[in-house]
Design brief:
Elements lengths: L7 H17 L14 H9 L4 H54 L10 H10 L6 H23 L7 E7 L10 E9 L12 E11 L2 H4 L7 E2 L2 E9 L3 H5 L2 E11 L5 E11 L2 E5 L3 H22 L1
Parallel strand pairs: 1-3
Antiparallel strand pairs: 2-3, 4-5, 5-6, 6-7, 7-8
Helix pairs in contact: 1-3, 2-3, 3-4, 4-5
């Protein structure tokens, strides 16, 4: 930078002061670049033998250089943010298209299962890499849609009640349990007139499931058992005599509703044989007894029909 009011030697000193100020503030946050005080640069100029008026002018030059650098940095940051937003928008559009393609194959009302191969093929078709994280996200989104439809279909709910279903990626330990949180809200701004001050009550429900809900629940035919939506099911070992008869047992968590519109999570023991599934809140033995009674009832109905 050449300043005509100073000699060549002074211009060299001024450039050194400016470069020193720029280097000293290189790590300063962007929003503080133009807010540095002038006094330190005036003092540095005075130490180099400049007069007070010259030092004040040099201080202004340093601040101008800092402001110009701040403008350049702000432009770069704005360009980076624009590129980032454009990339995120393109990714979101591609992922939404992949999710729609999978939902066309696995409707929320069907018993179909979204497999890893299906999810990866849909992602690759939209130009995405099909990484494990993307597959988990896509599979979890499909499971969320399925559980949301089931809960809305099988349980009572008020007009103002809200339901949100989320998924959580499979953690390192297999002890993750789905959660159901339901609480009541009161809104005093709904009613007016003679009813002003009355509370409009509603339930807010949040459900968190595993991303592999489809492979743990739907693939085993446990979507709804005994009019209760199953959130998770873990296979249990049975005696060899029962296993050879095609009986399967699960420790499960279901969505339960008793009085009112609130719902909760409860544990169940589920046993299946063929297309028959029964559950018990008490024990596996009780569930097996219920299955035996259900099988006998089916046999009686078959004999009567014959």
């Amino acid at each position: 930078m050449t300043i005509t009011r100073f000699t060549a030697e002074q211009n060299v000193l001024i450039n050194e002061i400016i470069q020193s100020a720029l280097a000293a503030t290189a790590d300063t946050p962007l929003e503080f670049h133009s807010l540095k005080p002038k006094k330190p640069y005036v003092t540095a100029a005075r130490e180099q033998g400049f007069t007070i008026s010259q030092a004040s002018m040099i201080g202004d030059l340093v601040l101008q250089a800092l402001r110009e650098r701040r403008v350049r940095m702000q432009r770069k940051e704005d360009a980076r943010l624009r590129r980032k937003k454009a990339k995120e928008a393109a990714y979101k559009k591609a992922f939404s298209a992949a999710l729609k393609a999978v939902k066309d194959q696995v409707p929320e009302r069907s018993n179909a299962v979204c497999t890893d191969e299906m999810a990866k093929a849909a992602l690759l078709e939209q130009g995405l890499r099909g990484t494990r994280a993307e597959i988990v996200r896509l599979r979890g989104s499909v499971a969320v849609a399925q559980v949301h439809w089931l809960v809305k279909r099988w349980y009572r709910a008020g007009v103002r009640d809200t339901l949100e279903v989320k998924y959580r990626s499979k953690p390192k330990t297999p002890k993750f349990e789905p959660t159901v949180s339901c609480y009541e809200e009161a809104d005093y701004n709904v009613y007016g007139g003679s009813f002003k001050g009355w509370a409009a009550r509603s339930y807010v429900t949040d459900i968190i499931i595993r991303d592999d809900y489809a492979s743990r629940v739907m693939a085993n035919g446990l979507r709804v058992v005994a009019d209760e939506v199953v959130l998770d099911a873990t296979p249990l070992k049975l005696p060899k005599a029962d296993a050879t008869r095609g009986i399967r047992a699960f420790s499960a968590y279901v969505v339960a509703q008793h009085r009112g519109n609130s719902i909760d999570r409860e544990s169940r023991y589920i046993v299946t044989q063929g297309d028959i599934a029964v559950s018990s809140p008490d024990s596996l033995e009780d569930a097996l007894q219920r299955l035996a009674r259900e099988m006998k009832r089916k046999e009686r109905e078959a004999r009567k029909a014959a």
